[in-house]
Write a structure and sequence with these properties.
alpha+beta; Arc Repressor Mutant, subunit A
């Protein structure tokens, strides 16, 4: 029974990730953070959206455990959070074998 609950939780995380990555700006943010941690201002300077919009996208990615932030003085430095990638990775590996 516990295994089916874990599988269901993983599947919900996968659906959440796909839904979040369905928005092109969030996917671009994620790709940029995969290369190097950045602040919201740094990301906004590279994107055709405001800093406020970038922060809103980051909040959604953070809630799904796909992005994490740490304090660097007065700045919040965002980076990829591997915890949120684990269910997606397991799902992709499972279906790559099938």
């Amino acid at each position: 029974m516990a295994r089916s609950h874990a599988a269901a939780a993983d599947f919900r995380a996968v659906l959440r990730a796909f839904a979040l990555f369905g928005h092109p700006i969030r996917l671009i943010i994620f790709q940029r953070l995969a290369r190097v941690p950045m602040t919201a201002s740094e990301l906004a300077g590279q994107l055709p959206v405001s800093r406020t919009a970038v922060v809103q996208h980051l909040k959604r990615l953070e809630a799904a455990l796909l992005v994490d932030a740490s304090r660097d003085g007065r700045r919040r430095l965002y980076r990829i959070d591997r915890r949120g990638l684990a269910p997606l990775s397991r799902w992709l590996k499972k279906h790559a074998r099938d």
